[in-house]
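ugh ok so i messed up the first submission bc i forgot one of the chains. this is the corrected input, ALL of the components this time, i swear. 940 residues overall. if the numbers dont match what u have on ur side tell me asap before i send this to the collaborators (the ones from the other lab, u know who)
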Amino acid sequence: MQNKFLDRYGRAVLKGFTSTRSIKSNANSELLEYSSRSKNSLMKKFYQDIEDFETGKFLYPEKPVVGYFCSLVPEELILACNLHPVRLCCEENLWTQAGEEIIPGDVCPVVKSICGKFYNQMYDRFDLVVVPGSCDPKTKLAELLSPLKEVYFLDPGRDCDYLKNADIWGEKYTKFFDFLKERFHCSSGRKHLLSACKKTNARTEIFRKIYQFRTRNPEAINSFDYYIMIYASFFMDIEIWNNLAENVYREALETREICKNPKILLAGTPVIFPNFKIIDVIEQAGLSLAADIQCTTFGRFYNPVEIDEDTESGIIRALSLKDIAGSICPCLLNLEKLVNLIVDAVSQHNLDGVIYYNLRLCQVFDIQTAVIRQALKEKDIPFISIKTDLGNQDTGQLKTRLEAFREMIESRRN
Amino acid sequence: MKKITMTRRIVQVFCLILLVYGGYIFKEWKQSPETEQSLFPALKAPAGSISITKLEKGSILWPSGATPVIENYPPSLVCRFNPKGGMFKACILHFFSENLTWQTQLKYLLPYITLFILLCFLLGRMWCGWVCPIGTTGDFLTFLRRKMNIPVKRFPHNFRINLSFTGYGLMAIALTISTIIGMPNFARYQCYWFLPYCQICPARLICPLFGLIRPNWKDFSTSITTTFTLLAWIVLGLFIAAFYFGRRVWCHMCPVGLINSWFNKGAGVELHKKPIKCIKCGYCADACPMGLTKMYEMDKDGIYNQNSCIMCLRCVEVCPRKGCLSVKFFGKGIRIKDFFRRKNAE
Amino acid sequence: MKTFLIFLIPILYCLAYGADQIQIEFEYPSITGDFYVAGTVFFPPSAAPDLKKILVMDKDTRKEIPSKIVVQDNWPDGSVLSAEIVFPANSQKKGKYIIFYGGDVERKKSFVEAAVLPTVSFIVPGAGNTVENMDVSVGQINVRVDRSTNIRYWWYILPVFFLILITVLRTLRTIRMQKL
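and heres the new structure output, hopefully the right one now
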């Protein structure tokens, strides 16, 4: 079950790289700034938890902790084995610089910062790391992390066509489930899977409510709060998160404000704490981020698990459909679907424009830009693509561009 | 369970009770001599014909029900072997084979054919998914399998196509035999070859069980009845296996369903798809009990009605995107999603 | 195709071999004890190839009854046209009897008239559809008395054609829609 090729190639070479340099994250100061802008009193718990998580003080439940990357890894299988799933993703400049010691060069900044975090003992609590073979950097990441942690490599393939691949996905997920059961000595079955799916479906339901609410009224839960909630869902216990998010939604319902700014849709690279530069710039430019199509938010939460066959293999198959076939990951063959989604969301929610956010050095997002630009041009939807990195040097320039974009939208309106 | 499926289950159970035990409810409605003058003439075997005189209790084809109260032939399967039912008489294949043998004049059949075509035109093959007692029985078998945690067997596309050819073959053989034994020179074969499909149909053995009546499950008196008995056992085994390990695999070769399926693409119940909303998650194709994939593949706006579709509306129900798949009745939205609004719908 | 053949072959087998049955009707006499039942039966051409292919059976117990069968006439192909059948019956156990004949019937029990007993003659209702008794059997003539006029039934042809026409048109539309 364990990926043996890592022993042959990765492990011996990379052993000496464990850095001991202590890095102080500046996440705390940013958190304070964002929480001061929040209009929702109940958001404090989320901010507190994120601060704990970033400084390593977060109290995990008394269970084994399993870290995973991407939406392609079925969280429900980890939940069903009575483990604590933590979705890992990191876009922080400091950690990127730390990761530079291990992988120098023009490499995906996300992989760099994840490596930085792992090699500085940020994730020591983890018992297992699940890495999907979604894109090339992630595949290599599995090898880079294997000297530190036990790594399970899950390769879903790049073709997300249901007809060709449904059986293969089912097999792969079943193998993963078997591995989890064997590794953590638990006997999970149909009932555990069903209850796990129930939890995630409850989360989907709450997320849908918030998503729909924000398309009409993006100011009541502002973008920072929204992305903080999303980030908190990465590591918080799912039931606690559901309760808190439900309460936040209820509070937001009461304090309804009318949004006058042009509403825009954000697509492209996921926005991960603390890299909220793009949201900050959008807000400063006088635009409201009303909807988004990203893998951390829409792609991860929007589809419920539809269990048709409530047998064990049937549930696992349903999970594979939700996570792979319904995925909007740019690494898979689903560009047409993404274009359709953007066009449909704009017309459905009466949005004024689309911002395509693209993190430098991520090629798959970059390649898609031209196609989306062309498709939206045909539909006469204002479109701007932003390409930036994790640093703060180009904030002023981005702001100017987005202000011009807003003026263009407003002139179209009148 | 989701709302549409729940409604479907309730309708199925209600129809099962109505079609199987309906005769008990309407027992007072005796067949009067005026039936001849009513809207639908009662179809009778010609007096003294062998198919009637030779049918006795204990014969395979002896109808276990009383005399039909309302002589009608619904598009879905309702059996001659219903226990004391007789609210409705039989399925459409029974109707054709019986009257071909009796050589009933076409004019007497026209009212029934009109009603059948009208119902099929309005609702398509919805009968199979919502009404058919055999389908309900099969769904119960599928339910049992799920409870026992046995994974579903998904049959390949070609196998399902071949099954429908088999169904057409059976139908052709049954109707040909019925026509031949209706001719005067072959009338003596009527006592064995009357209703040839009914003799091997699994409904013959299953329907009496609903009324706790022992079906005539074996008759080894002659080689023909022996063959029919053995065939009926084989078909029953196939039927149970088809429903237990697959989902609605049997419905691909049911001749009654095949006749209904001719109306499916022109039916009033239309299934619409808007591909711009589709996220290609494959939930619809995965949930389809008939194993159809048109709703997944289609990338143009329009109707995706298929001949084999039994209109269980499961695809519409599981679709996570509002407005992607929808049901319409003659192009008018019946807003089924609003009636049965799911919790996590948009 | 294979599935189709699985169904086809047993049906062909059925066509090749077979047997038919004739029901016997007679009234039990008022006397008690054993008696003979006798009567003449007509068979269709090549249905009963020879005497061995005809037997009498108790309908309830499905047991063969010893019988004496005498051929009276033959068809041109040598098969039995008419035969006189005699078999013993008892007034105590009121059995029902049927005559079986056909290619796969094999008579095993024969019987010799040992004692002189009263004889009851039987008739064959409705069946025995041979050329000889074709014109006497009223059952074969389909009699239907219908006093209503034809228009009461034939007008249904209009909605039938109308519905089929619309169905065909809508089907064509759907097929055009689904064409890639």
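quick check: The radius of gyration of chain C is 26 Å. that seems consistent at least. Confidence is low (pLDDT under 50) at residues 127-144 of chain C.
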